[in-house]
Every structure is written in C-alpha cells, then in structure tokens.
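Lecture 7 notes: from sequence to structure.

We start with a single chain of 289 residues. Read the sequence below before looking at the structure.
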Amino acid sequence: MLLSQLTRLDAQRLCHEKSFMQRQQLLDLLNAVQRGETSAHKALERLAQLPFAELDVARVDHHRSLRCGFSEVVFGPGKRADDLVRIVERALKGAPCVLVSRVSDEQARVLLKRYRKAIHNARARTVRIGASEDLKTEADVLVVTAGTSDIPVAEEAVETLRAFGCPCESIFDVGVAGLHRLLHVLPKLRTAGAIICVAGMEGALPSVVGGLVACPVIAVPTSVGYGANLQGLTPLLAMLNTCASGVSVVNIDNGFGAAMCALRIVAAQSERQLIATKTRRLKVTKKNK
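Now the structure, written as tokens:
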C-alpha cells in the first residue's frame, strides 16, 4: 500500500504547513488511496509528477514551496508569450498564485487575454494570476524609495510581496536630499517587520534608514542617476560599504530579490513567535495542573 511506503519524516516534509499545493493536494491524494477511490499505481504516477512538471521549454518546479517556503516565480524576458501561458498553466496546478516578472507589453497582453482576472502592474512589469492565502506576520514589510524614479523597482517588490500574501505598505520619495521627509515617517518605519529601501543616485538612503531602525533593512540599488551612477554600480558599491550595521544588499534593480529576502525574514519571525506562544501556553497549562 502506498501509504505504508511513506515514512513519518516524508509525510511531515510533504505536508509542511507553508506548502499550499503539496499539503492540500497530497492529503487529498493519500486520502483517496485510503478510501479506495484511486489505485496506488495511479497515485504513484501522480506523485512522480510533483517534484517538477516537464515541458519542452521548461521544468516547472512544484516542490519550490516545500524546500524554500514559497513557490516559483516566472521570469519573463527571453520567453515567448505562448510559452509563458503554458508555463503559468502548469504552475497554477501546484500553486494558488503565480507571479510573472519583467513582462513585455506583448507578454502582458497575451497573459491578460488568457487570464481575465489577472493583475497587470505596468510600472512593475509584472502579471499576477490567482491569489495566495494571507501570510500571518507580526508586522508589515515597508517598501521605501529615495525618489519617484525608483518606484518601478519598488513596485516589483510590492507585487512580489502581494503574490505571497504578505502585508506591505509603500512610502515613496523620502530620500536624503530632503531628510525632513524621512524623519516625518520615522514612527511608521519603526513599526516595520522589515524594510526594503530602494535608491539610485549615490545610494545613501539605506545607510540612513539602517541607523534609525532595529528591523532588518534590505537595500536595493537602482540604475537611476546621471553618468557617474554607472547604471547602478555606484549605489551598489555605496550600499555594500554602508557603515550601518546589518543592512543587506541585493542586485541592481532587483526588487523581486529584495521582496523574497523580506518574505523569508518575516515568515521566520512569525514562526518563532508562534513557537514562543505555544511554549508559553504549554507552560501555563502544566502549571495549572
């Protein structure tokens, strides 16, 4: 019997609560075997397809959420629009929401024609299909930009956070050229679970923010600026050399990468808080006995 072939450790891994697809679909499949509604052989064939779905142009990773806590995001550049549709169709069989990043206008048009309820953020160059369950976090992720020109990169981060149900808020145009604007929103910054700080030009904002708050700060250099900005290299080097301790840095214009980093941080914070709460309740229960 297929059920007996699964070790306890395998079952726990396959049914990890962070994994929407594997938890629900695997439980349904195993219960169907137990009830005699499907054969062990058919279930085995289905399980064989779960690690990834093989197309002629892609291998869709259905186990990403098991390994990393969050499902795969599809990178648009270099892919034909019809290939993107096929990839998304297969990805949606294993995830409640699929995000496609860096889409062209043509790719967005084709995806929106196929998925009428999809959300296209033209500024972020993303298309979001479906919706994830809300991620329970202790505090929101704040996405902060130095200038209005940095908003496209920030919006990519926001769309990524939304794709995985993470509560987030944006604060735009609070760069160091007008430091009073940043100080005005400082109380809000101090409530964040993590801050994504997006800046071009000389890239000074993450260092300032990193010296004012206790939460993790993720710096994103952008290619916004004049000649010596060197298409984002100058702010990248400035952020890597920050004197504010604990500021992490992602690649140039990589709003997506910053959001994934923030997601891991707030998810870990939430999980630790949940464990601490359960431990306290257990101690109270034992004490009352």
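The CA atoms of residues 69 and 196 lie 20 Å apart. Keep this in mind for problem set 3.
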